[in-house]
Amino acid sequence: MTAKTPVASKAKRKKSAGGTLLELAIIVVVALLLALAIQAILIKPYRIPSPSMEPTLDINQRVLVNRIGHELGDTPSVGDIVVFHPPAGAASNTCGAHVQRGQPCSAPTPKESNDNFIKRVVAGPGDTIAIRDGHVVRNGKLQKESFINPCAPGQDCNFPKAIKVPPDHWFMMGDNRGLSDDSRFWGPVPKSWIIGGAFATYWPPDRIGIL
Q: Does the pTM exceed 0.85?
């Protein structure tokens, strides 16, 4: 009887270890599935590919974007930083409407691009917008924009003739006004092309914060 006791204990320990490993594997799988679900449905990370949003966001900085709010019907507000699909005309700065000299683009080309852009909302549906030395003139009022990089001499930053933003469209501009291809050149963006709002930065560590 005494010789069998260690054998039984050893078998029991093996069974217990096997159960622990299985439980750990299940936890890991569930955690990965939850992470993928959160990324696909709720929150998605994006990398900043260009200097167009400096000084607010630097090249290769990472941001988190809230997708669920847009899916539930939230509309962007002026001042929000959003990720969206630009019009196909953005690749060549092509406007979808005929505009007079000195006017920003009033309408995008009809086809949606597969690219992801990140810009700031500077005007919404029904607003009038003109650009003076890179600064937004919204509904006739020069906006206070302490967050932007001003335009340098020779950069295309003056569009003095105002346009009206169409219904259900938002006018996007980069904070680096002299080095941003944005709605000034290819038009406002319809709501259905907006992916979500960027709400936080998580990389690099010294730039972690809320937008």
A: no
